[in-house]
Specification:
The protein is an alpha/beta fold and about 350 residues long. It folds into three domains: about 140 residues, Rossmann fold (3-Layer(aba) Sandwich), CATH 3.40.50.300; about 60 residues, Orthogonal Bundle (Helicase, Ruva Protein, domain 3), CATH 1.10.8.60; about 120 residues, Zinc Finger, Delta Prime, domain 3 (Up-down Bundle), CATH 1.20.272. The protein is about 60% helix and about 10% strand. The protein has 16 helices and eight strands. It has a six-stranded parallel β-sheet, with helices on both faces. It has a two-stranded parallel sheet with strand order 7-8. Helix 4 links the parallel strand 4 and strand 5. The radius of gyration is 27 Å and the shape is elongated. Belongs to the DNA polymerase HolA subunit family. Its EC number is 2.7.7.7. Pfam families: DNA_pol3_delta_C. InterPro entries: DNA_pol3_clamp-load_cplx_C, DNA_pol3_delta-like_C, DNA_polIII_delta, P-loop_NTPase.
Length: about 350
């Protein structure tokens, strides 16, 4: 039995003269199990390029267990090769798991079987079967927090790009440690940078979905700082980039609601950790909301809420240009208090 990490799977499979019939993918990160299976099937197709491969992904609960076992034990016909992933095998009742493991001990020609086990450890009895059949165990646990920048840079390299350190840090700061979301944002950046080989921090701000979050914080920071010029610049930048006026209003309204929630929760004596549990947002966003909520009063938030409501009415009921309406919102916020 061979035990390897997910990022070495492709090179390992390419190096083998005879490909084992059983691969077991286990770990606490569904994204890595998905990607490892995709890597395996692509590499397998390259190895048997003269034959068509049928790849099937089956899960207990969505496919009858009898059908899963039947497919594993059936020889593919017509010169076809077959790759079967039995995903979420950890959900199988003990009796069915034993039947599945027995089926793995009698592999059929031109057929490869993968087991997806979505837990941090692979049970000893499952690993023992992998050893008996000369299978491969692929570790798909998430990188540690301090390893995430290198993981992102390695992923960028696979796309033919170099992700610089600041860009990686910014992505992690805004997105957190959700690997699927990080990979999705990186794909956007690869397309955005086109022929450029290096992805920089400014690309992250301009091209990824964090731009809206970043801009909402910038605008609110400017309001708290008493800087109408900065707030206007941020608004105009978003409108010029193609953001619809109502969508921009929605971004700001949601941000004000989050600030109100944050302020209320913190005033109850709750901690930042409690806040994370309530709001379910990336760590950077939580920390920034907490910072802004302390710099804004309840009266300020009420005033912002009222102005956003009036802006919504103006956008829907007048023909005034959107930038004029938003300028009015910001300048009205900074008007001298009436006596």
């Amino acid at each position: 039995m061979q035990r390897i990490y997910h990022n070495r799977l492709s090179a390992y499979v390419k190096s083998l003269n005879i490909l084992p019939r059983v691969f077991m993918f286990f770990g606490n990160t569904p994204y890595l199990i998905d990607e490892s299976w995709n890597t395996f099937t692509k590499t397998l197709q390259n190895r048997v390029s003269k034959r068509r491969i049928i790849s099937k992904r089956l899960s207990p609960g969505t496919t009858a267990f009898e059908d899963i076992i039947g497919l594993i034990r059936t020889i593919p016909m017509g010169g076809i090769a077959r790759a079967i992933l039995v995903d979420h095998a950890e959900n199988l009742p003990q009796k069915q798991l034993d039947q599945l493991l027995d089926a793995l001990k009698a592999p059929v020609p031109s057929s490869w079987v993968g087991i997806g086990w979505h837990e941090f450890k692979l049970p000893a009895k499952v690993e023992k079967v992998a050893e008996e059949v000369g299978g491969v165990v692929v570790v798909c646990n998430a990188p540690r927090t301090n390893q995430l920048p290198n993981w992102l840079q390695s992923l960028a390299k696979q796309h033919g790009k170099r992700l610089n350190k600041d860009a990686a840090s910014l992505l992690l700061e805004y997105i957190g440690n959700d690997l699927a979301l990080l990979a999705s944002e990186l794909e956007k950046l690869v397309l955005y940078t086109a022929d450029r080989k290096v992805i920089e921090a400014n690309d992250v701000i301009q091209a990824s979905s964090i731009q809206k979050v970043y801009s909402a914080f910038q605008i609110t920071d400017a309001l708290a700082e008493g800087n109408p010029e900065k707030a206007l610049t941020c608004v105009e930048s978003l409108l010029r980039s193609g953001e619809s006026p109502l969508a921009l209003l929605g971004i700001l309204a949601r941000h004000v609601r989050l600030l109100w929630q944050t302020r209320s929760i913190l005033q109850e004596g709750k901690s930042i950790e409690d806040l994370k549990g309530y709001l379910k947002l990336p760590e950077f966003v939580i920390n920034k909301l907490a910072q802004q909520a302390q710099n804004l009063t309840d009266e300020t938030l009420k005033e912002l809420h009222l102005l956003l409501f009036r802006t919504d009415v103006a956008l829907k009921s007048t023909t005034l240009p959107p930038h004029f309406i938003f300028s009015h919102l910001i300048l009205h916020f900074f008007r001298p208090p009436s006596h």
